[in-house]
Design goal:
24 strands; alpha/beta; eight-stranded mixed β-sheet; Nucleotidyltransferase, domain 5; six-stranded mixed β-sheet
Amino acid sequence: MAYQPQVKAIEYAPYKSGGKNPFPVPDIYLPYSECYNGNVLIKKAEAKTELTQAHLDEIYKCASDPVYFIENYCRIISLDDGIVSFKLFPFQKDMIRNFQAERFTLSLLARQSGKTQVVAGYIAWFAIFNPTEQIAILANKADAAQEVMDRIRFMLENLPFFLQPGVKIYNRRTIVLDTDTKIFSSATGGSGIRGRSCSLVYIDEACFIEKDMEFYESTYPVLSSGQKTRMIMTSTPRGARGMFYMLWRDALEGKNSYKTYQADWTARPERDIRWRNETVANIGYSRFKQEYENSWVGSTGTLIPMKVLETLQWINPINDDESLCVYRKYDPSHKYITVADPSEGTGNDYSVITVIDITEYPHRIAAKYRNNDISPLLLPHTILNMCMEYGNCPVLVESNSACGGQVTYILYYELEYENVILTSNNEKSIGGLREGGKGNQAMPGVRTSKKVKSIGCSNLKTLMENNYLLVDDRDTIEELGTFIAKGTSYEADDECHDDTITPLILYSWFIKSEYFTEYCGSDIGVDLYAKNMKKEMDNVMPFGVINRGFDTQENHYRAYSLSGSYEVTENLYKSFQEWMME
């Protein structure tokens, strides 16, 4: 009979001392039979252990103070020193106290600030000392959410057994403790936590979530269903746009329940001006501002300058509807114009209908409809209803695509709405209604040619810079921040939309038409010129203007400067005349 060596049974799991940083209170010896499925680092549910009074006192101390728990019992991996205790920076302690004190928190943090480790430590503490809770970890990608879970798992595995809870389920994406508290991770899809009852939701890198507003709208009901539910969002900036940016700005203005916290590169004690200068040289100042100074650097090359975008403030609609936002109710003494941009209704691009109050300057958005799944067969009825709601106002519909042509045809020919604006390739007929159109060339709707878009973009920029158009719709403000120069035109930045911008471009193009001038009762071009002439003259004539007594408007603007810049003002006037004749 062959010799079979004796294998000594493992009686106890390896003793946990804390390594280089011993635990304040010595651990217990855990029998191997009390480990979870042979994992010697994890205690199984309802494991039989004997604790001393010192252990019980330490458990109470940790339960009372997450900072104490994290610094003394959570372990992380250091690139230089291996497994070490997690010593928090002062700003990280402030983050944790903010998590404790507030239900809804937004943390804007510089790159490499250790935010993921801090939140992982707080979630580990929350899960251990709060029974029967549901904790969701979400990120823009499943792998990113899994990274947070891996950090929590590492902390749990390195806890002393006397402090470690037993587990019922322990895998990569789900942990269920013997207190029935559950931690799970998921990507930020619309169904990530839909239908679940969560007491704590953590969203990592919230600025980088695709379709973030749709995700947030599907997630928030999970939080609002409880009185103690918590939301923690952390992120580095990604431009003045998106869900996180909107929530952040609203929080600073007291418009929501979120509390903000931020820390830039200076919060790390080891980083000095030498580190800063080296990093700027390596990655560029623009990127450094965004990733290390928490600057809301927007998309570069936006049509509307950032100094204008930063002044825009969105307001809450007076109605409660997912697609329709009403900002100003119909006033019989006011004049309105509606502009519509149809889409296929397949869930991608949005169909947008914007009603603009053009009674006085600045023109304002009265109502906006935005939906990405409405059928082109139903959209004309929605356009008609909105126009009728605002005094049967004129409507300009983009008809570039087959979808747009279909919407325009139904609205004009089948529903017989007479106030559909007709346009033509013949510039003289642009802006004529059916009754006032020029022969058979005028057709309902407008085709957004390169010239139409170019003029519309130029006019939109001028109107907003001079406060002749006030935009206070949330979706439109967000899209303006990502509407950038691409090639010879302007389009939405990558992974962004510009559907609410198109009606504004068409409106801005249309304001120079004869029909608009007659309908509105004033010439916006002349008004703008009169408003800005003094400013322009000051720019080209720094020493002032001598009025030579000319009476006509043209001669008045041909005033001489003390520096003799007659040719400059002459050219300025001619440029304005050319702009008016485009």
